[in-house]
Design goal:
The chain has 649 residues and is mainly beta. The chain contains 4 helices and 49 strands. It is elongated and about 90 Å long.
Length: 649
């Protein structure tokens, strides 16, 4: 157990910390190599579970479902009714931190050379997921099958594994109907009493068992996958009181402003199926492949062997998702839909900065895909020899000139590469790139629409944001706004060289809380154009990990104590009481990859009005944080001047 979980467990009123989302579920993208490889997704499959794999690029390639109860040699295919048969060299081992792959190369392959795959891994855990197998006994009436889900299931999927059979699926929102996972069929009611009942009545599942008559033929073998539904009774997170999986329903309205589904959390994975449209199957979206706000999402279907396709499906929100399409896959007017949604992780504040922040110095013709952080949520990319730089938020799925102020606000596709969920790379210049993962207390981000009226927006930082950056997206002329805890809530400070001024309409002169931030009537943060046109980043201090702070210059040198033990890997400093074009007042950035030493170190400016990467001795290392020196090149320690900073260990 990590340090943060030990601390959380000791403090928990529930008596101990629960599992994290990232310990129960993983969506992992990988490229096949045609040989063997090990996928590390940090899911302990020695506890039991299911690995579900799909080729994203090619039509006529089967899903592969590998569960720990039946072993690696007996995969199933959700898009066919076939029985399981011995299959070699697909998934070859369940590991304590992921799984291993073989070199099979046909339509059932999981590791074909130069092919992009998605894997969804579900660990067996109470109130999340369970796998049950049994051999039919031909008992009269319904047979009660025991399970260890520890709660009433939200979804039950049953498959006869020793003979041809459909995938019979029950969902809590339509308890008197069943569906077949391998087809686009709408719900069936007449036969539900046989598949999920005793032959006379449908029998509701309980927290310990479910009932079936038909799926119990003498001598045949069966498997059931059970997904939970948390209803304010989840046992996850630091206080063992968080929900991470929901199974529900909604009715479509046929509008691009579709239904808003409140889950109580932001999802990273959503499966949706219409219950009354025969032509629409089981659509699956996730944040790794692209489930974005205001753009095209990458959709696969559990019932289809087809390749991934793009459409506007759903937009994640801080509390659920909103349907943003008229497609009948998601939002036919008057159609009914069932869904399963899994929460975005992590639920725990980080105890190690390397788990939530990474730096990559890409050389010429290399890419940001070499970075080691994995599922980062926001990447900041800078060419070192020119003025070009971008932020690429996963929630938007496109690059924006969030940091430079010199380029069009949105760019939907140039430079984007979602094959591995990495999105962006420079290929012809040396670059310095920074990657942040969302985590409680450390970092959060969201997109929102302006209304023109005073409004609040919910966030998932779990504490009061100490710094926020907000960028208007639908114009190239707007600068990003900067809120900082040590400045007034009416301070108009931007991510450029401007001198700070006062504007009470930006944040309505209101400080953010641990659940929401407020925007006023200023078009800088809240116009009324009615589209998703703002992006916000939220930062806070985590002991030993990050520090949002300020200091007063002394004209010489001074140590800035951030509470770190091995110094800062990333430092951002800006003078907060002055500014102006061509002044030395800029957002200066240093990092240990390029060098934070006692000598001359290179740095960049977030607002890149120059094309060079200067080097000087403004910064020295210190174990508690860093040392600032006063030199004319940067003026980051002018006597009596005020400065704000952000540092990551």
């Amino acid at each position: 157990m990590s340090v943060s979980k030990i601390v959380a467990a000791a403090a928990s009123s529930a008596g101990g910390a629960g599992l994290d989302v990232d310990e129960c579920f993983s969506c992992h993208l990988y490229e096949g190599n045609g040989s063997t490889q090990t996928i590390t997704n940090n899911i302990d499959l020695t506890e039991g579970g299911l690995v579900w794999i799909k080729d994203r690029e090619n039509n006529d390639t089967n899903h592969g479902l590998f569960d720990t109860e039946r072993g690696v040699l007996l995969p199933l295919k959700s898009n066919t009714t076939n029985q399981s048969s011995t299959t070699f060299n697909t998934l070859t081992a369940f590991n304590s931190n992921g799984f291993s792959l073989g070199n099979r190369s046909d339509a059932s392959a999981t590791n074909a050379s130069n092919t992009d795959y998605v894997s969804w891994t579900f660990r067996k855990a109470p109130k999340f997921f369970d796998v049950v197998t049994w051999t039919g006994s031909n008992f009269g009436g319904g047979r009660q099958i025991s399970h260890n889900l520890g709660s009433v299931p939200g979804i039950i999927i049953i498959k006869r594994t020793s003979a041809v059979s459909a995938w019979y699926t029950w969902h809590r929102s339509t308890p008197n109907s069943y569906y077949t996972l391998d087809s686009t069929d709408e719900g069936v009611t007449d036969s539900t009493k046989y598949y999920f009942g005793d032959g006379t009545n449908v029998v509701a599942p309980t927290s310990t068992e479910f009932t079936t008559q038909t799926m119990n033929e003498n001598g045949f073998t069966y498997v059931a996958y059970l997904f939970a539904h948390n209803n304010n009774d989840g046992e996850f997170g630091p206080d063992s009181d968080q929900d991470i999986i929901k199974c529900g329903s909604y009715t479509g309205n046929g509008s691009t402003t579709g239904p808003v589904v409140n889950l109580g959390f932001e999802p990273q994975f959503v499966m949706i199926k219409t219950t009354d449209n025969l032509s629409r199957g089981w659509a699956v979206q996730d944040s790794m492949r692209g489930m974005v706000v205001g753009g095209a999402d990458q959709r696969l279907r559990w019932d289809s062997s087809g390749a991934e396709g793009a459409d506007n499906g759903i937009a994640p929100t801080s509390t659920g998702f909103q349907v943003e399409t008229t497609s009948t896959y998601y939002n036919g007017n008057g159609n009914n839909y069932i869904y399963m949604a899994i929460r975005r992780g992590s639920l725990f504040p980080p105890d190690d900065a390397t788990k939530v922040f990474a730096i990559d110095a890409a050389t010429q013709d290399s890419s940001a895909e070499t970075q080691s952080l994995g599922k980062y949520d926001s990447g900041w990319f800078f060419k070192r020899s020119t003025s070009e730089g971008y932020a690429v938020p996963r929630i938007l799925g496109r690059k924006i000139s969030f940091l430079t102020g010199q380029y069009a606000a949105l760019n939907w596709d140039a430079g984007l590469d979602n094959s591995q969920g990495k999105y962006f790379s420079y290929t012809s210049d040396s670059a310095i790139n920074y990657f942040l993962k969302r985590a409680p207390v450390f970092f959060d981000h969201l997109a929102y629409s302006g209304t023109g009226s005073v409004n609040t927006h919910q966030h998932n930082l779990t504490v009061q944001p100490e710094m926020m950056w907000i960028r208007k997206l639908n114009t190239s002329s707007a600068d990003a706004l900067v809120y900082h805890k040590d400045l007034s809530a009416s301070t108009d400070l931007r991510l450029n060289t401007n001198a700070p001024s006062t504007d009470s309409n930006i944040y309505n002169n209101t400080r953010p809380t641990d659940t929401v931030f407020t925007v006023g009537t200023s078009s800088k943060t809240n116009d009324n154009e009615g589209s998703v046109n703002y992006y916000a980043m939220l930062f806070a201090s985590v002991s030993g990990v990050s520090k949002v702070g300020s200091y007063t210059g002394n004209g010489s040198n001074q140590t800035i104590d951030c509470g770190f033990t091995a110094g800062a890997r990333f430092i951002l400093i800006r003078r907060a009481d002055a500014g102006g074009y061509n002044s030395t007042v800029r957002y200066y950035v240093w990092d240990t990859v390029r060098g934070i030493t006692s000598g001359s170190d290179p740095h960049i400016h977030l607002y890149r009005e120059t094309t060079s990467e200067p080097s000087d001795s403004s910064i020295n290392p210190h174990s508690s944080g860093f040392i600032v020196n006063e030199i004319s090149a940067t003026n980051i320690n002018v006597s009596s001047a005020s400065y704000i900073f952000y540092a990551i260990a």
